Here is the input.
Amino acid sequence: MAEAEYENGLKRLDARYIGLLEYAEAWELQKACVKEIDREERQETLLLLQHPPTYTIGSDKHPEHLLLGEEELAERGIALFQIDRGGDITYHGPGQLVGYPLLYLDAVGLDLHAYLRNLEQVIINWLGEYGITAGRKPEYTGVWVGDLKIAAIGVKFNKARHRRGFITSHGFALNIKAGIAADGFSGIIPCGIEQYGVTSFNDLTGKQLTVEEAAVQLLPHFEQVFQYKADTLVK
Here is the structure.
C-alpha cells in the first residue's frame, strides 16, 4: 500500500476537516488511526477540526497552572482532560484550528525535534502570506508573533509495532477567532508561561477568517513542508 501512495516523490495524505468534535471522541479517533497506519491499513492522515471548550494537561503535569476549580469549570462548560501528549496545560475551543497529523516517521534518520520545527514552520509560512512575521522562542515550542503566542504544539510519538519508527499523534492548536484569549486562556497559565500573552489571527489582522477557511489555506503549506500530497480537503 505504501509504495502505491507515492506520486512525483510525494507521499499521499488523507486530509480531513471534521468541524466541531468532542475532545474524547477525537482522542479515540487518533488512537484508532495510529493503529491502522502502523498496520499500513490507512494512509497517513491530517485531521483538522475544532473542539468545544476544553483544557488538556500534558505529560509535564502541572495542575497548578489550571486556575479554575471544578465548580467554575462546570459553570463555564469547560471539559478537562489529562492526556498523553508532551507539554503543559492548554486550551481548545471554538474559533481555534486544531491539527492532528498522524504520520509515520521511519527510524532511519529520525529527528523528532525536526518534526516539531516543521509543524511550527507550516504555521509560520501561512502567516507570512498575510505579511505577519511569526517565529519561535528558543526556550518554548510553538509559534509566536513578537511576545504573543498564536499557536501551541504538543505531540506524542507512538512507537510502531509492525515496522521500525513512530507514528505521530496530537499536534497543533492555532488561534483564529478574535477574543479567544479571553474565552478560555484566562482560566489557565497557558503552557505554564506567565510572562507572555496569547493572540489570534483575527486579532492581529482585523479580518473575520473562519476556522474552515484557515484549514483550507493551511493545507498547502503542510504539504510543502512535509512533502505530502492530498487529493483534496475532505469535509
